[in-house]
Amino acid sequence: MNIYDLWFSSVSLSSKIKLDLIKKFINTEELWNDTFYNANKTLLNDRDKKIKYNLKKAWDKELLESLIVKIKSKNIEATTFNEDIYPKALKNYDDSPSILFYKGDINKLNMGINAAIIGSRNFTSYGKDAARLISKEISINNINVISGMARGIDTFAHESSIENGGFTCAVLGSGIDVVYPRENKKLYDIISEKGCIVSEFLPGTRPFSYNFPIRNRIISGLSDIVIVVEASEKSGSLVTAGIALEQGKEIVAVPGSIFSEQSKGTNKLIRDGAYPFTGFEDLFRILNVDYMIKNNIKVNKIEGVKKKICDILGDRPTHIDDIFGRTNIDIKQLYELLFELQLENVVICLSGNYYVKVESTV
Predict the structure, then answer these.
(1) Distance CA 86, CA 98 (A)
(2) Which ranges carry the DprA winged helix domain (predicted)?
(3) Per-residue pLDDT tens for 242-290?
(4) Helix 236-246 × helix 264-271 angle, to 10°
(5) Would you list the domain boundaries of the chain?
(6) What is the H or E stretch that residue 105 is in?
(7) CA 150, CA 152: separation in Å to the nearest integer?
(8) Looking at domain 107-287, which CATH architecture does it have?
(9) pTM of the entire structure?
(10) Across-strand partners of 99?
(11) Per 3-state DSSP, what percentage of the chain is helix, strand, and coil (rounded to 5)?
(12) d(C-alpha 170, C-alpha 88), whole Å
């Protein structure tokens, strides 16, 4: 990263205009020369007076030099649209960021398959279990997990990917050096070390609400598929899903209870044509990837525990606390197993964390 990259990132122009400019020049230094000295005479004619004005207005050498010292001290890197390490998936769109700031290994975004896992900040236990389990299976099958590091579903997706040895990328709605939400500072540090964090916003940019719809196009743009776990009817995740559709991406939505506010958005996506998430075999079929069930050593033990759970359940709703008390299974694993049983259509989760057997329902 150099002072010219930083300058161009700070210019107040639309993404489409900036992308068009960067495509015309070898690098941002060449653009700077053309801006101030009309060296190439390819851009700065009478028609482009407004563009020229904004380019010149952004140049504050003293401020930019001070900022670049701070950025380098924080191990922040940058890549422009014309460079090889810039994510290839984003080169397909005319509104992609001309410059991306990043921490971590951005090269892995150009390797293999990327899957976005997104959802509501106001999550349910069902949504949490779904996000963690989906991220786990994706990660152990060597698929990268993309999300936005927001509270709730995004956080669970990132955490589960890391816990299972996967690669995860967080796309921020703030400057890359601004951690939001603050409670995710530890997660931010781990992703910076083991995964990748990216942002198109100038370092130091606060997490303004209008930044997040802008960054959502990067989450979907980087991904081969977008999986929506939970979303209310006015959720930002639906905005991302809409952008993904415009980009020609496949959308998968986790179905939920008709009584759950957090499932109204995902159920609506399914109604409008998204693939319903019904199991991993179907998900990996959409990705055109062979689904490998790993950790086979634990299979028999897990199956035995599932049977124990099923033996407890019947036609009368049983609360999660009662199941926990009678099985003595770690509560985190219990939720995961109950979610797997729901995927297998063995049990149903009712409102209030009550469970019944499917075979016992009418």
Answers:
(1) 10
(2) 307-353
(3) 999 999 999 999 998 888 899 999 999 999 999 999 888 889 999 988 8
(4) 20
(5) 1-73, 107-287, 296-360
(6) none
(7) 6
(8) 3-Layer(aba) Sandwich (3.40)
(9) 0.83
(10) 80
(11) 50, 15, 35
(12) 17
